[in-house]
Amino acid sequence: MATIRKVIITAAVTGAIHTPSMSPYLPSDPDEIAEAALGAAEAGAAILHLHTRDPEDGRPSQDPEHFAPVLEKVKNNSDAVVNITTGGSPAMTVQERMRPVMAFKPELASLNMGSMNFGLYPMLDRFTEFKHDWERQSLENSRDLVFKNTFQDIETILDIGRTNGTKFEFECYDISHLYNLQHMHARGLTDGPLFVQSVFGILGGIGGHPEDLMHMRRTADRLLGEEYLWSILGAGKNQMPLATMGVQMGSHVRVGLEDSLWLEPKELAKSNAEQVAKIRRSLEDLSYEIATPDEARQMLGLKG
Ligand code: KMH
Ligand code: ZN
């Protein structure tokens, strides 16, 4: 069968949603995060979406001092595209969340396209034992948490990107976020091609039903036309099913322990690389090719 097209795999290595007590495989200190990122790149991820944690207790951290050793090791040992979070943890201020992108001027960074509820507390039904108080507290606190991404916040981060040559992974958790992106683009605040990461299955955003995916796709097509590259992020159990469905509708894919701790239902992923290898196998079975980092740079128009 002829090759159809190249698919960009992003690995989101540790994030800020899951906590160390939920899985012994969640990378926590800088060395673990760097090793996990390099393993994911080796397995086929062209883009590494990076957060860091405080090595003391695994708490999410946007301190550039925690990013520096991760970035140094990743850049010295791989040519993968580094994508630094500006989402940090939904509980942090926007100023805190922007610190590493301002410090390191990466070629790619995440940008969350609207304010929303961000309900993590249902995880308290599944996870009951926590090593650190902050872990339970962060889930509890999400009952009364707004993940703040006002128009002003978005414009501030876009401005940093324009100054530093950083392009964005636009994280869209709902239909309204696509409208927000269209609005920014129409005002000339973003450059194409737009890399739209549509996020499914976060409580507070759109769900993980195939109809949700279809609706996001149709709306993005209508609003953004030829101007965008589409990628799929399914949270938790949605990860692999939505990625394989999306790719057949033209998307790129994101996996990684930030988004799901699982390889199969009831089987924890032992590494980010395992998830990358799994989606890669599925894609190659369907005769898709995996994009290299340089191919991803070219497709996304990154500075390199
Ligand atoms: N944890 C994801 C659902 C960010 O880093 O900007 C969202 C995320 C946010 O990746
Ligand atoms: Zn993230």
UniProtKB/TrEMBL annotation:
The cofactor(s) it depends on are: Zn(2+)
Keywords (A to Z) from UniProt: Metal-binding, Transferase, Zinc
Superkingdom classification of source: Bacteria
* Signal peptide residues on this chain, from the entry's feature table: none
Q: Which GO terms describe its molecular function?
A: 3-keto-5-aminohexanoate cleavage activity; metal ion binding
Specify the protein name: Uncharacterized protein (DUF849 family)
